[in-house]
Design goal:
Elements: E1 10-16, H1 22-36, E2 42-48, E3 63-66, H2 77-84, H3 94-101, H4 103-112, E4 120-123, H5 129-137, E5 144-148, E6 158-160, H6 163-177, E7 180-184, E8 189-196, E9 199-207, H7 215-219, E10 225-228, H8 234-250, E11 256-263, E12 269-275, H9 285-292, H10 297-315
Helix pairs in contact: 1-10, 2-3, 5-6
C-alpha cells in the first residue's frame, strides 16, 4: 500500500457476492468500473465471494471500491475481512454496516437519537400466535409492512391489510429469511436522500406505478418516476436533508450512503432504512442525485475513493 502522501493508482471494484442481490451488484459494479476506466487509474473488476478472496491479496491494489449489496457485502462481513488485512476500502466500516443492515437494530438506534421511525414488532419464531397478533394490532394504522431484517432491495417485503394477514406474512417471511419484523404502514410520499462525504444531495421523490417501491419497481419497471423539486418549501427540504444526515451519523456511517424515508401528511419524514452501499444501476438513485448536484458518474466515484483514501490515512 502506498504512502498517504502519494495518490492511489490502482483500484479494484468488488462486486457480486452472494444472496438475492447478486445480479444488481454485478450491474452496479460494471457501471462503477466503466466510470473509473475514464480516468488514468488502473482499474480492475472482481466478482468476489467468500470462497474466492484472492483479489484481496494482490499487493498492487491501493484501494477497493465496494459495490456489493446484501449478505456478505453490505452486512459487515467483507468489511471486517478488509479491516483485519488493514486494507483501504470505500463505504461504512464493519460495525456501522452490520448495524444498518439489521433493520431492527437500526430502528432501535434511530429511536435513541429521536429520529422518527415507524412503530414495529419483532417477530420471533416461538412467539405465541395470539400474543403476536395482539402486538401487531397494537401498532395501529390501516396496513402493515412485513420485512425480513437482513435483506435489501425490498427483497421479501410484503404489505398486509389486516393484523391476521400480517401474521401469516410474518410466519412466511420468518420461514424464508429467519428473523423479521412487522411495521405500521406509514402512508405518504417516498423520498430518498443521498450523502457523499459530508455533502447532502438533492431530495428525490419516488413515485412507483405499483402499490409500493419493490424490487420490480427499483430495477426493472421503467414507469417508476424519480422526481426532483417536488417539495416547494425550502425549510421542509432542509429538514429532510438534516434528518438524513442525523440518521447517517446515528449509525456511524461514512463516505457515502442513501437514506430512505416516507413523508406523511403532516410533513414528518419517517426513516425506513439506510443503504450503506447504494446501487449504481440505471435505476439507482445516488448517482441520479449526484448528477443533479453536478457530479457525473466518474466524478462521483472519484470523490468516494478520495474520501475513503483520506479517511483511512487520517486515522493511520
Amino acid at each position: 500500500m502506498r504512502c498517504c502522501k502519494e495518490p492511489f493508482k490502482t483500484v479494484a471494484v468488488l462486486a457480486g457476492g452472494v444472496g438475492e442481490e447478486r445480479p444488481v451488484s454485478l450491474q452496479s459494479g460494471q457501471n462503477v468500473y466503466q466510470a473509473l476506466k475514464k480516468t488514468d487509474l488502473d482499474v480492475r473488476f472482481a466478482d468476489i465471494h467468500p470462497d474466492d478472496l484472492s483479489i484481496l491479496d494482490d499487493p498492487d491494489i491501493d484501494i477497493f471500491f465496494l459495490i456489493l449489496h446484501g449478505q456478505f457485502g453490505e452486512d459487515g462481513h467483507l468489511q471486517k475481512i478488509l479491516e483485519e488485512k488493514n486494507l483501504v476500502y470505500t463505504g461504512s466500516d464493519s460495525a456501522a454496516s452490520c448495524l444498518a443492515f439489521d433493520k431492527w437494530a437500526a430502528k432501535k438506534r434511530f429511536r435513541e437519537w429521536g429520529i422518527p421511525t415507524a412503530p414495529a414488532v419483532y417477530v420471533e419464531p416461538d412467539t405465541e400466535e395470539h400474543a403476536l397478533l395482539e402486538a401487531i394490532a397494537g401498532l395501529g394504522g390501516e396496513q402493515f409492512v412485513v420485512k425480513p431484517l437482513r435483506q435489501g432491495s425490498s427483497v421479501g417485503v410484503q404489505i398486509a391489510r389486516t393484523p391476521q394477514e400480517a401474521l401469516r406474512a410474518a410466519r412466511e417471511c420468518s420461514g424464508l429469511f429467519g428473523d423479521c419484523m412487522v411495521e405500521r404502514f406509514i402512508r405518504g410520499r417516498e423520498i430518498t436522500v443521498g450523502i457523499v462525504d459530508r455533502m447532502v444531495l438533492p431530495v428525490i421523490e419516488i413515485r412507483p406505478k405499483q402499490s409500493f417501491y419493490d424490487y420490480q419497481a427499483k430495477y426493472i419497471d421503467d414507469r417508476t418516476e424519480f422526481l426532483f423539486d417536488t417539495f416547494s418549501d425550502v425549510h421542509q427540504v432542509e429538514f429532510f436533508q438534516k434528518t438524513a444526515m442525523d440518521s447517517f451519523r446515528a449509525l456511524g456511517c461514512r463516505h457515502f450512503g442513501r437514506v430512505d424515508m416516507i413523508v406523511d401528511s403532516q410533513g414528518t419524514p419517517w426513516v425506513l432504512e439506510i443503504n450503506t452501499l447504494p446501487g449504481f444501476t440505471s435505476h439507482s438513485l445516488l448517482p441520479m442525485a449526484a448528477a443533479r448536484a453536478g457530479l457525473d458518474p466518474t466524478q462521483l466515484c472519484l470523490k468516494i475513493l478520495e474520501t475513503a483514501w483520506l479517511d483511512f490515512h487520517k486515522k493511520g
